[in-house]
Amino acid sequence: MTQPTLIGGEHLHTALALAASGLPVLPLRAGKVPFGNCRRCADNACGGRPNMKTPGPCACPGPCHAWAAATTDPHVINSLTWARAWRVAAAVAYHPGGAGLTVVDLDNAEAIAWARASLPATRIVPTTRGEHWLYRGAMQGANGVRPGVDIKSTMAYARWLGPGSGTMTALPEVVRALIVKEPASVRPVAVTVPAPVGGGECPHRTPTYLDRGIAMAEQRISEAHKAVHTTVYRTFLAVLSTHGRCGCLTDVHVARLFTAAQAKGESPRHCTDAWTNALTTLGLSHV
After folding, report:
1. Which domain-ending residue is among 29, 63, 93?
2. pLDDT tens, 144-195?
3. Which residue range is the domain that position 61 belongs to?
4. CB 72: neighbour CB atoms within 10 A?
5. In sequence order, what are the residues at sequence separation of 6 or more whose Cβ sits closer than 8 angstroms to the Cβ of residue 116?
6. d(C-alpha 30, C-alpha 23), whole Å
7. 276 & 196 share domain
């Protein structure tokens, strides 16, 4: 028997219906913004991006981490833990990748014209400024893949605007190709390396140890098939925890890590955010 909907009104009713159909859902505040981090993850201590749209590793009970909080469990959705969120929610969102879907978010008339000329027909949902094109199949989400076009799938959320019209078709390769970046597109980023401690002498005794560690870190990032941002953050954290204080880590080494991350689709800003968060977590931001 379905748990009665006592809180949240229309948005909660919609969320429960969507969850029953297999869509993981979450509440949104005004402005299409997810609910803020819980105390355990305040100031992005878990490694999430500052805008709270992409989390770090977290097992918090409340809807504090956007797509990672999305669920199909009616007991969680209708729980007292989520009660306040539904009472003040402005909209319902869902995690497309969690349901094996991809949303091509077209933000203006030019983007819609491109889609009509370049993509196979599928289900279309009208939005405030454009259209959502829904396909069966999941991929890594990414923003700004071309002017006016975002990809909402894995590690992303989309606002629920209705079922749309048309028959949903399989995710085409032309959409998957939108997030593939050529190595030449990787841009160097200015980074901060902690100042040497103890006169700059490396306790590892040989630079081979550092070179091997950087090579292993590059490999770990390059082999990530999912949760790329989390992998990048954890890799940065591991490198800094080992080499962040000894003085042997240079801008050249860090540039190699950033290059590996950008080759996996991370933007320069996201690389910098992950690096800064790792420095802060280890107490190295003021070293």
Report:
1. 93
2. 889 999 999 988 899 999 999 999 999 999 999 888 754 434 454 555 555 5
3. 9-93
4. 20
5. none
6. 21
7. yes
Report the alpha-carbon distance of residue 217 to residue 257 in Å, rounded: 7
Residues 61-75 have pLDDT tens digits of 677 777 878 889 999
Backbone angles phi, psi at 93, to 5 degrees: -120, 165
Q: Decide if 286 is inside a domain.
A: no
Give first-to-last CA distance, the chain, whole Å: 57
Domains contained in the chain, number: 3
Of the three residues 124, 148, 179, the one that is the final residue of a domain is: 179
- Burial code (b: 16+ CB inside 10 Å, e: under 16) for 127-153 equals eeebbbbbbebbbbbbeebeebbbbbb
Residue pair 145/180 in contact by the 8 Å Cβ criterion? no
CA-based nearest residue to 133, from 171, 174, 99, 95:
171
Residue recorded with tokens 């009665």? 4
Q: What is the residue whose two structure tokens read 């349901």?
A: 99
Residue found under tokens 């990032």: 221
Domain assignment present for 4: no
> Would you say residue 22 lies in a domain?
yes
For residue 70, is it within any domain? yes
pLDDT tens-digit readout, 14-62: 999 999 999 999 999 888 888 876 666 665 566 555 444 455 556 666 7
